[in-house]
Amino acid sequence: MKLLDKYILKKFLTSYLFTVIMLVSVICVIDFTEKNDDFIKHNLGAWKIISEYYVNLFPYFANLLSPITVFIATVFVTARLAARTEIVAMLSSGMSFQRLLVPYIMGATIIGVSIFGLIGWVIPNANKTRVAFERAYIKNPFRFQARNIHIKVGPKSYAYMESYDNVNNVGYRFALETIEGTQLKRRLTANAITWDSTKKAWRLTPQLVHTFDGEKETLRAYPARDTTLNLYPKDFASTYRLSETLTLPELNRYIKQKLDRGSDDTEIYLIEKYERYSYPFAIIILTIIGVILSSRKSRGGVGGQIALGFTLAFVFIIFVILSRNLALVGDLSPMLAAWVPSLVFTMIGAVLYRFIPK
After folding, report:
1. pLDDT tens digits for 215-273?
2. Which of 12, 32, 34, 127 would bridge with 107, disulfide CB 3.0–4.6 Å?
3. 287 part of a folded domain
4. What's the CA gap between 251 and 176, in Å, rounded?
5. Can you give the pLDDT at residue 326?
6. What's the mean pLDDT when you consider all of the chain?
């Protein structure tokens, strides 16, 4: 690495960290003013608020705003170099524009790899504490309100409940069916099923069991008893920001469980998974675009170029939100939705590189 590379890389990384700290700090102050009434209502101490909430909220926002912060840092550093004619001197000395991009790509790769590690393992663990804090002190108590719940609990077994009370962990109008192919072989029904936390098992009220063998049907009655199922109270717990609290291995296991059960809400978790892989790539693309747009001295000065950086970064986030919503309604596959913003901005970067004078 040459001295010039170290010079640009140092300026880029320090500008990025400074931008992250300043922008996220402002957002945290705004967040505090909005939630202060909730903190007062629950008589929370300053240490509890800071240690359980804001310490974990800071990295969450730092990751969320990374497209904006990396773009602003790139534009700020490059525009200042251009304003002081340093880039002109570099290019005049025989350095190609592609060679000028090298320290920026190195810095973006460092940031991208760091972000991947953070969003894959570190931030989800921090979000566990943050989300638990929000559920306890900011959000209203969760009540499971779904009706006529069907869950696949085995290769051939399907559980049904008319309703579920997540406060007392009681399911009503319970049925457990065994289906082979298209044939119903066995159906167990009970008025209620209750979770016994000491035994880690379900307590069934008296049951009726229908067994089908061709045209023959057998009916038997059983007294109340305990049973184990691939079904747990956590399956009916709040899913508020659940995808953000799962590390990458946990997310993969949860998605597999969802697919095995035939759930129809796996898209949000698949999108979260694929976005974690696409984010580092987006960081590199946005960095390159930032260098292309700000490498020439502008009459509007650095401020105008930073404003342009803000605008393009927000456009990127709008693309992320739009593609995510399209995936949630089924109009776009989750993998494509996660990569569309990066692919679109890759094409934009290629056009800018081709036509903007450097």
Report:
1. 899 999 999 999 999 999 999 999 999 999 999 999 999 999 999 888 888 999 999 99
2. 12
3. yes
4. 28
5. 87
6. 92
**What sign for the dihedral angle of Cα 122, 123, 129, 132?**
negative
Q: Would you say residue 242 lies in a domain?
A: no
Mean pLDDT for the stretch of residues 163-182: 95
> What CA–CA distance (Å, rounded) separates 151 from 147?
12
Q: Which helix (H) or strand (E) holds 19?
A: helix 3-41
pLDDT of residue 280: 92
Q: Domain range spanning residue 227?
A: 149-237
8 A C-beta contact, residue 143 and residue 167: yes
Contact by Cβ (8 Å): 202, 226: yes
Tokens (6 digits) for 147: 């009706």
CA distances from 299 to 97, 304, 305, 311 (A): 21, 9, 10, 18
Chain segment 127-136, per-residue pLDDT in tens: 999 999 999 9
Residue 291 has pLDDT above 90, yes or no: yes
Q: Residue 299: its pLDDT value, please?
A: 67
280 and 161 assigned to the same domain:
no
Calpha distance 347→342 (Å, rounded): 9
Contacts of 111 (CB under 8 A, 6+ apart): 13, 16, 66, 70, 283
